[in-house]
Amino acid sequence: MTELSYDRSNTGLIVVDPYNDFISEGGKIWPRLKEVAEANNCVPHMLEVLNAARQARLRVFFAMHHRYRPGDYENWKFVAPIQRAAWHRRSFEFGTWGGEFRAEFVPLDGEVIASEHWCSSGFANTDLDLELKRHGIQRVIVIGLVAHTCIEATVRYAAELGYDVTVVKDAVADYSPEMMHAALDINLPNYASAIVETGEVVTALSASNAA
Description:
Layout lengths: L10 E6 L3 H4 L6 H10 L2 H14 L3 E5 L17 H9 L22 E2 L14 H7 L4 E7 L1 H14 L3 E10 L3 H11 L6 E3 L1 H13 L1
Parallel strand pairs: 1-2, 1-4, 2-3, 4-5, 5-6
Helix pairs in contact: 3-8
């Protein structure tokens, strides 16, 4: 594998959906993710990558799912199955603990929170691409939830838009090992230039910080 190297002037970290409902005990979706997430230490690894990016002075961007509000989708002619499920579960409900950032992932001043995505891609119908371009970002490191939906959709869209993408495979999780395999071993290698572990990314970011 080619040695990882990142230039802070054109590289950004995208953190996808670090809501309590996803990655905290008591969250609505956490029970479905817990087994896989704990097996690869997903949440600690997410935090490790985030802290390394901050220390290396990379720009940090948060791509957050639409938070449930009363009336969502009621007058839509077509609702995708994944949206219908979120609607019925009231996932990431606005104004509730589940719809808040997990405490360790609250954005710092100057970090960018993109407009909320309605389906899976952090780019579709949001300002994420605009924010990345305005900050001179050409390469992105992606972490967060869920591997076969929001991570895969965001990475595919990033590649379509011309970004060079790194996925940190032990800083993502899914509902089953089979879904992780489909995303990380079958689908994402077509779009991500690098699919690597947390230690590799942290080492590369530390090197860029020392440069």
